[in-house]
Amino acid sequence: MLDMHFIRENSEAVKKGCRAKNTQTDIDHLLVLDEEKRSLLVQVEEKKHERNSASKEIGVLKREGKDAGDILDKMKKLSDEIKEADEIVVSRGKEIYEIMIRIPNLPHESTPVGKDASFNKEIMSWGEKRTFDFKPKPHDEIGENLDILDIKRASKITGSGYALFKGAGALLERALINLMIDVHVEDHGFKEIAPPFIVNRKSMFGTGQIPKMEEDMYDLEDKKFFLIPTAEVPVTNIHRDEILQEDKLPVRYVAYTPCFRREAGSYGKDTSGITRVHQFDKVELVKFVKPEDSYKEHEELLKCSEKILKILKLPYRVLLLASGDISFAAAKCYDIEVWSPGLDRYLEVSSCSNFEDFQARRANIRFKRKSKNKTEFVHTLNSSGVALPRTFIAILENYQNEDGSVTIPDALIPYMRGMKRIEK
After folding, report:
1. How far apart are CA 333 and CA 322, in angstroms?
2. Is 390 a catalytic residue?
3. Is 164 helix (H, G, I), strand (E, B) or coil?
4. Which of 70, 204, 350, 420 has the most C-beta neighbours closer than 10 Å?
5. Over the stretch 48-102, which tens digit does the pLDDT of each residue have?
6. Which position among 8, 201, 240, 276 bears the catalytic label?
7. What whole-number distance in Å separates Cα of residue 121 and Cα of residue 386?
8. In CATH, which of 1.10.287.40, 3.40.718.10, 1.20.120.530, 2.60.120.650 is domain 4-100?
């Protein structure tokens, strides 16, 4: 959430940022409402001062035995005017709030300006794409032939957009989660968190999922609670309405959770196998940092997510997202995309975002700066470290053999009960 004083002093920059994020927001109307509210507040204070003076005058007149009728009438009129002005102030405040919660975070100066994903910039790639002696199969065909992935029965159980992992497939899914958690805890110093998978409305607001993306969320009890779309929501809200100690920053958390998304508006996109599903597993990284360390920590966070794909020896690339393709709350975002030879394209497995103080303002997360003896908003960051099932897809397709079997990446063998190959 942006600060109203900042909007007031930088209205043109805010308008430009909204346009860059393809957001239609009437900033001029917001400024008119703000000016009206502030003017009314000044008038209210003046009338309250006038009323207080009249009250004192009445006391003097009564002590002197004089008629205070005219002053009493004046006081009543002032009280009515104050009440009316207060009601308008409250009304304007609500209008201002409803506009402000829909203003997106402004893109960082290093974020490319562009209306959609076609303006994203590839900044690096890693690994050699495997050359096959045979035509590589897509993951759904591989998984069904090995009886480790069953999309038809998942559809029977729930509906389209769900996956059923079986046998070695379920073990592979769990192995990936355990590997990621261990790497991020042991190598990167993150603290493991096991959060609730259901959050309240205030938590969803704090991280910026609502009201902007509410249609994508699974709600419960008439939108009072929500199934989490990502561990970012419960983990970031751990410190909602708290003041952190400066010497404890940065705070680094890692969490595994299932994620639930309606994917509203994505009909017909990524329909192959399990490339786009409504429920999926993900290991998430969340950081709370000092503002001056924000972008250094962002680059380090990207490296943490990249390391998982390097360990698994999966070719990938990193994209710097354009302003029209980053999320509502992000100022800057990298996407990591893993190579899928069966589908012959890259698949996103991680978004690494810096929200600056946008989420912290919404969730009221601050820290006490000792040198100035005052509180400031922290900066929050998060990254998938990394998401499944697209990593699952990449392993099946990159490690497939001509006989239909799949070789287990070396790093996963200890988590696969020593299994080195998945065979029919």
Report:
1. 8
2. yes
3. coil
4. 350
5. 888 778 777 777 766 767 777 777 778 788 888 888 999 999 999 999 999 999 9
6. 276
7. 21
8. 1.10.287.40
Q: Is 79 among the catalytic positions?
A: no
73: three-class secondary structure by DSSP: helix
CB atoms within 10 A of CB 5: 9
Residue 6 host element (H or E): helix 4-9
What is the tally of helices (H) and strands (E) in the chain? 12, 16
Tokens of 122: 């590839």
What's the pLDDT tens digit per position in 247-291? Answer: 999 999 999 999 999 986 555 566 779 999 999 999 999 999 999
Among the residues of 199-339, which ranges form H helices?
A: 201-206, 232-236, 294-311
DSSP codes, 7-38:
HHH-HHHHHHHHHHTT----HHHHHHHHHHHH
Please confirm, yes or no, whether 348 is among the known catalytic residues. yes
261 is catalytic: yes
Work out the number of other CB atoms within 10 angstroms of the CB of residue 269.
9
Domain ranges in the chain are 4-100, 117-422
**Residue 263 dihedral angles phi and psi, to the nearest 5°:** 55, 45
Task: Indicate which residue of 305, 351, 353, 383 is catalytic.
Answer: 351
Q: What is the pTM of this model?
A: 0.90
Half-sphere exposure of 307 (CA within 13 A, CB side): 19
Question: With 80 as the cut, is the pLDDT of residue 168 above it?
Answer: yes
CA distance 221 to 198: 12
DSSP assignments along 352-380, one per residue: EEE-TTHHHHHHTEEEEETTTTEEEE-EE
Q: 117-422: what fold?
A: BirA Bifunctional Protein; domain 2 (3.30.930)
Which residue is catalytic, options 81, 300, 348, 376? 348
How many angstroms separate the CA atoms of 391 and 271, rounded? 16
What is the chain's length? 424
Catalytic residue among 261, 297, 305, 397: 261
Residue 37, both tokens: 């509210």
Give the active site residue among 350, 362, 390, 397. Answer: 390
Residue from 329, 377, 375, 379 nearest 351 by CA: 329
Q: Amino acid identity of 299?
A: E
- For 3, half-sphere exposure in the C-beta direction (CA atoms, 13 angstrom radius) is 11
